[in-house]
Design goal:
This protein has helices spanning 3-12, 29-37, 48-57, 75-78, 91-103, 127-135, 137-141, 160-177, 194-199, 209-212; strands at residues 19-23, 42-45, 63-66, 84-88, 108-113, 145-152, 185-188, 204-207. The protein has an 8-stranded parallel β-sheet. 39% of the residues lie in helices and 18% in strands. The protein has a single domain (3-212), classed as Alpha-Beta Barrel (TIM Barrel), CATH 3.20.20. The chain is built from 10 helices and 8 strands. The protein is globular, with a radius of gyration of 17 Å. The structure holds pyridoxal-5'-phosphate. Residues 23, 25, 46, 67-68, 153, 190-192, 206-210, 221-222 line the site of pyridoxal-5'-phosphate.
């Protein structure tokens, strides 16, 4: 099936209110344009340089999401245009995003990445750390960022029971804090596991290979360190 057929199929299968981030890492501008021409506007990349290069070459009504681990010294390259940063995992990083957003007179939306996988390679903070961050005085001073939700990456496994355990953990935490912390989005689920993630309350899925086809392993970066 073509990219435009794939994206229509995924979109049509989603319940109302679920946001689809089409993950374009390693894919060419031509391939991404096929999804754009099918009407899609929300794309995700996991490396800042790659996202900046594509933003530069592509129509400016695209919403770019940074879904990968973010190094503080690279925030400045995307601060002018990034629409959502999914994998925020420290107050230090929030401070830097705030500082760079202020330079562009913007408020940048962020998600906190919560560690739910067993694998050591997955980034994120635990629930206690997230709670401490939410109530910290410092957070209140950061006027150029807004935390609008949580993000999680499950273990890379076919074991449905394990995936369910990880998803329900994040769903429970999200439901416990969403009202007091004014959270709107739970970003959870990728090509292989998004139908299950939706059952556990995800309302933002990040889907790459199911739309654009398999990536070549080298630049994948899935769950790996950068
Ligand atoms: C690559 C990636 C995805 C998409 O993975 P697929 O299995 O191709 O759908 C989702 N989230 C993150 C953080 C990724 O790096």
């Amino acid at each position: 099936m073509s990219i435009s057929e794939n994206i229509k199929r995924v979109k049509d299968s989603l319940p109302e209110g679920v946001a689809l981030v089409a993950v374009t890492k390693t894919k060419s501008v031509d391939e991404i344009l096929q999804a754009y021409d099918a009407g899609h506007r929300v794309f995700g990349e996991n490396k800042i340089q790659e996202m900046v290069a594509k933003w530069d070459q592509m129509p400016k009504d695209i919403e770019w999401h940074m879904i990968g681990h973010v190094q503080r010294n690279k925030v400045k390259y995307m601060a002018a245009f990034v629409s959502l940063i999914h994998a925020v995992d420290s107050l230090k990083l929030l401070n830097e995003i705030n500082k760079q957003a202020a330079k562009h007179d913007r408020v940048i939306d962020c998600l906190l990445q919560i560690k739910i996988a067993e694998e050591d390679s997955k980034f994120g903070i635990n629930e206690e750390e997230a709670k401490a961050l939410f109530i910290s005085e410092e957070l209140k001073t950061l006027e150029n960022i807004t935390i609008i939700g949580l993000m999680g990456m499950a273990t890379f496994t076919d074991d449905q029971a394990q995936l369910s355990t990880e998803f329900v953990k994040l769903q429970t935490f999200f439901n416990a804090v969403k009202d007091t912390c004014k959270l709107q989005y739970l970003s959870m689920g990728m090509s292989a596991d998004y139908p299950l993630a939706l059952e556990y309350g995800s309302n933002m899925i990040r889907v790459g290979s199911a739309i654009f086809g398999a990536r070549n392993y080298q630049n994948d970066g899935k769950g790996g360190v950068e």
